Amino acid sequence: MTAGSIVVNGRELLTDEEGYLEDPSQWDRDVALAIAARERLELNQERWAIVNYVREYFDTQHKVPEARTLLKAMETLFDKSRATRKFLYQLFPYGYGQQACKIAGMRKPRKLMLDV
């Protein structure tokens, strides 16, 4: 695979070979919707909550949260009964790192400790 791009609202945004944005600062809601459409996912309330958490975490910590960090946050975002890997995979069937982080406009994580 080679690097590519995605066009959103007339803007061409560079992506890597797997569809992750090369520049996370170009992300906005419309970009998230376009990437989610490529992933064949509808951004419902729960998916938006995860995507927004990833963005906020990245903005403050300058890194992508590992899955265990996200699972802890899901206790607050949802409730304890839905703060599980099973629910996370129901939302993002191909994995948190492979779909949620991509939709949130992150670069591909170097180490995929995201889905452990």
Describe this structure in words.
This protein has one domain: DsrC protein, C-terminal domain (Arc Repressor Mutant, subunit A), CATH 1.10.10.370. The chain is 46% helix and 9% strand. It contains 5 helices and 2 strands. The protein has a two-stranded antiparallel sheet with strand order 1-2. Helix 2 (45-61) packs across helix 3. The longest helix has 17 residues, at 45-61. It is globular.
Which tags fit this structure?
mainly alpha, 9% strand, two-stranded antiparallel sheet, 2 strands, 116 residues, single chain, globular, 5 helices, Arc Repressor Mutant, subunit A
Concise description?
By secondary structure, the protein is mostly helical. The protein has five helices and two strands; from the N terminus they run ββααααα. The chain has helices at residues 29-38, 45-61, 67-77, 85-91, 96-103, and strands at 4-8, 11-15.
